[in-house]
């Protein structure tokens, strides 16, 4: 590549996907002008620690919220600002500062799945086809023109984590298609306007307040748990909640048994050694991972046959 096409890139990045993006950018001929991420005093410091070790210029991710940061981007002659899993709302002046533009990797097919935790909502809605989008960032959240999008099938057993990982894998490929196109001919970056009549935005509301309802079919209860499930990592929604006596039980992971149940919903049974099953409206679910008052506990140690789970 001719040196004049070497891009100056500002990367706003969090989580595993952000770290993967940073490592992949390091292998290109482009220059990482700066990395913006959560500082070490917050939960998301893995990207910061790696970038610091590698000698990158670092700024708190929150810097993008202030109009004055646009001048920093202009002084660094930033061509592209790439946002990977950072949730900070970027100031309009900052969006306009990069020479080519600012682009976001969104873990969902826009415009239908805009906003937060889109993979979880897709599972709750029994989607069998999902996707990931790279779009130009405008003042509205997830409203900018689509540059690249890919769709893929979802399996019946997907969790929020598995869908999120697939989005990261597919999305990073799209992001580097964008980078390659920007280096060769920025004017050829696709600019597909979203049909905002199809838009649905998901905010911070947790479905059903995070409470499990055992009087629903087992497939629905299992789907609810899978939508929350980032195991072995913490879920942004927490674990779905239920109670037995005065103890709060978090249901982190379940598995369908295929066995019909006539027991009252929420009834606990022991089966096959240490397996613990819970009755739903029509069938039993196996409880694989649970917490009691916030602590992870083996289901067989915390629950006894005949216990009754409920809100």
Automatic annotation (TrEMBL):
In alphabetical order, the GO MF annotations are:
methionyl-tRNA formyltransferase activity; monooxygenase activity
Q: Which residues form the Formyl transferase N-terminal domain?
A: 23-175
Which UniProt keywords are present, listed alphabetically? Monooxygenase, Oxidoreductase
Residues in domain Formyl transferase C-terminal? 208-306
Ribosomal protein found in the keyword field: no
GO CC terms of this entry: cytosol
Write down the InterPro entries for this protein, in alphabetical order: Formyl_trans_C (IPR005793), Formyl_transf_N (IPR002376), Formyl_transf_N_sf (IPR036477), Formyl_transferase-like_C_sf (IPR011034), GART_AS (IPR001555)
> By what name is this protein known?
Luciferase-like monooxygenase family
């Amino acid at each position: 590549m001719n040196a004049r096409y070497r891009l100056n890139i500002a990367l706003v990045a969090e989580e595993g996907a952000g770290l993967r993006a940073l490592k992949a950018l390091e292998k290109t001929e482009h220059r990482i002008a700066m990395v913006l991420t959560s500082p070490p005093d917050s939960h998301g410091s893995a990207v910061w620690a790696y970038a610091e070790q590698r000698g990158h210029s670092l700024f708190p991710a929150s810097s993008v919220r202030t109009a004055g940061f646009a001048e920093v981007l202009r002084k660094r002659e930033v061509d592209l600002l790439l946002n990977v899993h950072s949730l900070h709302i970027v100031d309009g002046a900052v969006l306009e500062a990069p020479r080519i533009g600012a682009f976001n990797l969104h873990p969902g097919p826009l415009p239908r799945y805009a906003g937060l935790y889109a993979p979880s909502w897709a599972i709750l809605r029994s989607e069998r086809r999902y996707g990931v989008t790279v779009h130009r960032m405008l003042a509205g959240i997830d409203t900018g023109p689509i540059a690249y999008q890919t769709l893929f099938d979802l399996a019946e057993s997907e969790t929020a984590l598995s869908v999120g990982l697939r989005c990261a894998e597919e999305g990073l490929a799209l992001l580097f298609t964008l980078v390659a196109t920007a280096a060769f001919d920025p004017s050829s970056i696709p600019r597909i306007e979203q049909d905002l009549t199809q838009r649905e935005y998901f905010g911070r509301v947790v479905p059903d307040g995070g409470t499990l309802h055992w009087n629903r079919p087992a497939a629905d209860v299992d789907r609810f748990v899978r939508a929350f499930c980032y195991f072995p990592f913490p879920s942004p929604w927490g674990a779905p909640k239920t109670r037995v006596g005065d103890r709060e039980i978090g249901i982190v992971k379940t598995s369908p048994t295929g066995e019909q149940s006539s027991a009252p919903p929420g009834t606990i049974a022991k089966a096959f050694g240490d397996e613990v099953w819970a009755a739903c409206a029509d069938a039993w679910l196996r409880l694989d991972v649970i917490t009691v008052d916030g602590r992870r506990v083996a289901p067989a140690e915390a629950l006894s046959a005949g216990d009754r789970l409920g809100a």
